[in-house]
From TrEMBL:
This is Cadherin-13. It comes from Propithecus coquereli. Cadherins are calcium-dependent cell adhesion proteins. They preferentially interact with themselves in a homophilic manner in connecting cells; cadherins may thus contribute to the sorting of heterogeneous cell types. May act as a negative regulator of neural cell growth. Residues 158-172 have a biased composition (Basic and acidic residues). It is a lipid-anchor; GPI-anchor. Residues 147-245, 246-363, 364-477, 478-585, 584-702 form the Cadherin domain. One of its GO terms (biological process) is positive regulation of smooth muscle cell proliferation. Residues 1-22 form the signal peptide. InterPro entries: Cadherin (IPR039808), Cadherin-like_dom (IPR002126), Cadherin-like_sf (IPR015919), Cadherin_CS (IPR020894), Cadherin_pro_dom (IPR014868). The lineage of its organism: Eukaryota, Metazoa, Chordata, Craniata, Vertebrata.
């Protein structure tokens, strides 16, 4: 058995149904002429014949149907192409699709002088302007199948046919591929006996634009005889998707006074239809502008690019004269190159007219008045300005400067961020007696610089006249504080000083009276007329009212104004020490064991309220010892401490030992204090003093600890 002829795939300008008989091969299905050229007329007239088409399916043209790529044209049953209405621009190319149950083909009408469009159906359908490839017998012959998307019932419907001119008897056709036995399954099927290919449901080109199927013939056992041969199914696009604006919100900004033709922003829509057809060829236009003042056509949109530009003069694009600096444009995108049959989608474009600093701030008046009491601080006047620029920008916000009349830096001016007013303040108290009037020159500018053709004028400066009001000020002590030094214990009635207070209101000629305000110890008196301060009691440096040898008192000076004003003065008295305090000893009670081997009794310390040199070194002595001599002994340890000890053991009893301590003052002061010594019974680490039975630490051990501590001083 000889091998079978190789498979031949014929890609034609249209799907051609091949005949299986030798006689039919003499007839070529399709258009007799496939390309036509005409010149672009001024207008296509309704029902006027444009050209005649001749199509044959070699089977009598039963159920012949024509489809034209532009919906404003049709083909009559006699093959005449006519317009359905008067129309001018239709593009550069029209495609005519003819179809019968046995064959279909595509013809192209080229309009010379027509406007270019994106691509052509010839590119989409991948047809070539060549004659069909000659068929060969004894082969499976297939051609691409073209199916419009969105077809309606009934289904299934035949869409093409596969022919094998030398198919063995009993063999069958088999169809495979995506859309048949691969997902999405069941869309296409083939009549295994006749080779007719049918579609079972409506197609969506935006989901799948082409299907790559394979055809083969098999024997009764399913064994492949020929093939597989590729069969391409092309879904013809229909205009079933509206343009969509996906990138919103769309907000653009343009500076006021911009030149005509300034680009503001770009609007771009997308269309899911085939970009190689007019179905996705978009054109843009402005449907509505709000507000419509000062011109209903403030902006223009490039119909092809979507660029929005200004079309009014710079003078009309003045933010300060516009009713509203915000414009809203309803932008429409329409497919089919903007023809009336095209689908549309809309979006809103918001355009803000941005401010520039083309208006300088101006004071509402040339002169401002202010009054302030002497001695007061704070805001005294608000300076008001006008500025036509945008209040949210630095072109409106004001900055104030005092350019004259403030040599002492007594005034400052700041901007109120809410009102833009200049808040003029006194920061250093003013004195009426020095100057009752002040005149300031104030300048106002913007935070942002002015545009080159605008400058600050005379209205950007103002004068402020300030009147200082006289206030009855309290007298002032000089110096303050007042300081004197005196020895403590001076005699009562001693004069300490004469205070001096003056009245700042020199023009009022007022009198001043004095009084004591605070005298914690009650030691002082002041003459209300002349201010002489003397003592009413002894001054004591050791008083609790004295701190670090300084006593503090306060005095008042009251003028004769109505109402009277008061001033306060401070007197600091430094008290010099006098040796008026005798020293004292500690402790005053001690214990010792009756059988102690260490006869040390206690370590005594001394203290003195006075200051050096009226304190240590202290002299310790036993005064008038009433017990037999050579029983007690006192020894100096250092300037402030001494050791009391026994010369022999004593019986259990209580003893009073008078201790005399003398300071180093001139003259010195002496104090005699009884030291009570308890001689206790100490057995088995227990101390019994007068049968008290208290458990105490051993006296010798305590004495040794104290001696060690003193040695470290």
């Amino acid at each position: 058995m000889q091998p079978r002829t190789p498979l031949l795939v014929c890609v034609l300008l249209s799907q051609v149904l091949l005949l299986t008989s030798a006689e039919d091969l003499n007839c070529t299905p399709g258009f007799q002429q496939k390309v036509f050229h005409i010149s672009q007329p001024a207008e296509f007239i309704e029902d006027q014949s444009i050209l005649n088409l001749t199509f044959s399916d070699c089977k009598g043209n039963n159920k012949l149907r024509y489809e034209v790529s532009n919906p404003y044209f049709k083909v009559n049953s006699d093959g005449g192409l006519v317009a359905l209405r008067n129309i001018t621009a239709v593009g550069r190319t029209l495609f005519i699709h003819a179809r019968t149950p046995h064959a279909e083909d595509m013809a192209e009408l080229v309009i010379v002088g027509g406007k270019d469009i994106q691509g052509s159906l010839q590119d989409i359908f991948k047809f070539a302007r060549t004659s069909p490839v000659p068929r060969q017998k004894r082969s499976i012959v297939v051609s691409p199948i073209l199916i419009p998307e969105n077809q309606r019932q009934p289904f299934p419907r035949d869409v093409g046919k596969v022919v094998d001119s030398d198919r063995p008897e009993g063999s069958k056709f088999r169809l495979t591929g995506k859309g048949v036995d691969q997902e999405p399954k069941g869309i296409f099927r083939i009549n295994e006996n006749t080779g007719s290919v049918s579609v079972t449901r409506s197609l969506d080109r935006e989901m799948i634009a082409t299907y790559q199927l394979f055809v083969e013939t098999t024997d009764v056992n399913g064994k492949t005889l020929e093939g597989p041969v590729p069969l391409e199914v092309i879904v013809i696009d229909q205009n079933d998707n509206r343009p969509i604006f996906r990138e919103g919100p769309y907000v653009g900004h343009v500076m006021e006074g911009s030149p005509t033709g300034t680009t503001v922003m770009r609007m771009t829509a997308i269309d899911a239809d085939d970009p190689a057809t007019d179905n996705a060829l978009l054109r843009y236009n402005i449907r509505q502008q709000t507000p419509d003042k000062p011109s209903p056509n403030m902006f223009y949109i490039d119909p092809e690019k979507g660029d929005i530009v200004t079309v009014v003069s710079p003078a009309l694009l003045d933010r300060e004269t516009l009713e509203n600096p915000k414009y809203e444009l309803i932008i429409e995108a329409q497919d089919m190159a903007g023809l009336d049959v095209g689908l549309t989608g809309t979006a809103t474009a918001t355009i803000m007219i941005d401010d520039k600093n083309d208006h300088s701030p101006k004071f509402t008046k040339k002169e401002f008045q202010a009054t302030v009491e002497e001695g007061a601080v704070g805001v005294i006047v608000n300076l008001t300005v006008e500025d036509k620029d945008d209040p949210t920008t630095g072109a409106w916000r004001a900055a104030y400067t005092i350019i004259n009349g403030n040599p002492g830096q007594s005034f400052e001016i700041h901007t109120n961020p809410q009102t833009n007013e200049g808040m003029l303040s006194v920061v250093k108290p003013l004195d009426y007696e020095i100057s009752a009037f002040h005149t300031l020159l104030i300048k106002v500018e913007n935070e942002d610089p002015l545009v080159p053709d605008v400058s600050y004028g005379p209205s950007s400066t103002a004068t402020v006249h300030i009147t200082v009001l006289d206030v009855n000020e309290g007298p002032v002590f000089y110096p303050d504080p007042m300081m004197v030094t005196r020895r403590e214990n001076i005699s009562v009635g001693s004069v300490l000083l004469t205070v001096n207070a003056t009245d700042p209101d020199s023009l009022q000629h007022q009198t001043i009276r004095y009084s004591v305000y605070k005298d914690p110890a009650g030691w002082l008196n002041i003459n209300p007329i002349n201010g002489t301060v003397d003592t009413t009691a002894m001054l004591d440096r050791e008083s609790p009212f004295v701190h670090n040898s300084v006593y503090t008192a306060l005095f008042l000076a009251i003028d004769s104004g109505d109402p009277p004003a008061t001033g306060t003065g401070t007197l600091l008295i430094t008290l010099e020490d006098v040796n008026d305090n005798a020293p004292s000893i500690y402790p005053t009670v001690a214990e010792v064991c009756d059988d102690a081997k260490n006869l040390s009794v206690v370590i005594l310390g001394a203290s003195d309220k006075d200051l050096h040199p009226n304190t240590d070194p202290f002299k310790f002595e036993i005064h008038k010892q009433t017990v037999p001599d050579k029983v007690w002994k006192i020894s100096k340890i250092n300037n402030t401490h001494a050791l009391v000890s026994l010369l022999q053991n004593l019986n259990k009893a209580n003893y009073n030992l008078p201790i005399m301590v003398t300071d180093s003052g001139k003259p010195p002061m002496t104090n005699i204090t009884d030291l009570r010594v308890q001689v206790c019974s100490c057995k088995n680490s227990k101390v019994d003093c007068n049968a008290a039975g208290a458990l105490r630490a051993g006296v010798p051990a305590l004495l040794l600890l104290c001696l060690f501590s003193l040695a470290c001083l």
